[in-house]
Amino acid sequence: MRMRWCVLLLVPLVGCVSQKAFDSKSAEAHTLKQQYDEQQEQMKALEQKLSETKAAAEAAEKEKAELESSLANSDAERRALRKRVDELAELNKELSRNTEKLEAAKEALEKKSSEYESLAKSLKEEIKTGKIELSELKGRMVVKMKDKILFSSGSTKLNKEGQEALEKVAQALKDVEGKLIRVEGHTDNVPLPADGKAEFASNWELSTTRALVVVKLLQEQGVPPTMLSALGYGEYQPMASNQTAEGRSLNRRIEIVLAPAEQAPSAVVAATVKKAPAPAAKPATKPEVKPASGVKPAAKKK
Predict the structure, then answer these.
(1) What is the separation of C-alpha 229 from the centre of its chain, rounded to a whole number of angstroms?
(2) Which of 136, 185, 192, 145 is nearest to 168 (CA)?
(3) Is the whole-model pTM more than 0.70?
(4) 265-275 confidence digits (pLDDT tens)
(5) Continuous segment of H or E residues that includes residue 256
(6) Which of 37, 74, 179, 244 has the most neighbouring CB atoms within 10 Å?
(7) Is residue 93 pLDDT above 90, yes or no?
(8) What is the distance between the alpha carbons of residues 230 and 216, in angstroms, rounded to a whole number?
(9) Quick check: 263 and 231 in contact, CB under 8 A?
(10) What is the dihedral of CA 198, 203, 205, 208, to 10 degrees?
């Protein structure tokens, strides 16, 4: 009886040991499988590295061959390189000379003329207060005056303030020689009233008439009329946008342009160089007397 119980107790014990061993072996097999897979990946990486190393070795060998080939021509290349260096050095010298010329030209361009300096000195206060703007470029000087300094809205009658400023401008311009003095009138794009009360039909007439008024004042102040001219541009040469009040104010202006006399008509150029002598007086001729109707003219004596 005791033997039977022992046998019965051994059977479960054997079963438990076998399952535990199985699980252990399974885990071991799984670990080995992971290690195998990792080794396979490492093998692939090594093969890739080997392939890249071979490619690099082939490229190095090819480069070596090319270098050996180029060394054979090194003398010719050095001579060509030296020639190129000499050419670049000469080019650099030429660029330096051109740079000096450009700097000299720039300095001459920015140098202000004696007329500019004289006018700037005469109009110092007006320029400082913003009534007048003075500029000069390439021998072309511009005296810019806002129309509100000179004229009331829509008017061509000079204000006292504008007349005083123009008289100062005239004093600086009356002794200028070799220049064409052109007065240009400009307006904004606001049309004149169409109710028939406006003095002018359009901004064309207004700008031109204002330019003429300024020209006449300059002439009265001693500026040579042979060098004066007037132009009206109306609204068609704005210097700012007419979409704002500030822009329209900038566009309403009078510009007195001093340009080289070569730009003037030939007759004006000649007048600035040398005054033409007065034409010789023609000998007086007796007026021809026509015979009365029906009377035959007397025969001339031979």
Answers:
(1) 30
(2) 145
(3) no
(4) 554 444 444 44
(5) strand 253-260
(6) 179
(7) no
(8) 10
(9) no
(10) 130
176's CB contacts (< 8 A; 6+ apart) are: 115, 227, 258
Report the C-alpha gap between 119 and 143 in whole angstroms: 9
| Cα–Cα dist 253/238, whole Å | 10
Rounded-to-integer distance, Cα 126 and Cα 119, Å: 11
Phi-psi category of 139—alpha, beta or left, where left has phi over 0 and alpha has psi -120 to 50?
left
Q: Are 200 and 190 in contact (CB under 8 A)?
A: no
Q: What is the pLDDT of residue 299?
A: 45
On the 0-12 / 13-18 / 19+ scale of CB atoms within 10 A, 259 is middle
**What sign results for the dihedral spanned by CA atoms 163, 169, 172, 176?**
negative
Q: Which two tokens stand for residue 22?
A: 């199985």
> Angle formed by the axes of helices 203-220 and 160-173, to 10°?
60
Q: What percent of the chain has pLDDT over 90?
A: 25
Give the confidence band of 264 by pLDDT, cuts at 50, 70, 90.
low
Going by the DSSP 8-state scheme, the letter that residue 276 receives in this structure is P
The burial of 156, by beta-carbon neighbours within 10 Å (0-12 exposed, 13-18 middle, 19 or more buried), is given as buried
Per DSSP, the three-state class of 208 is helix
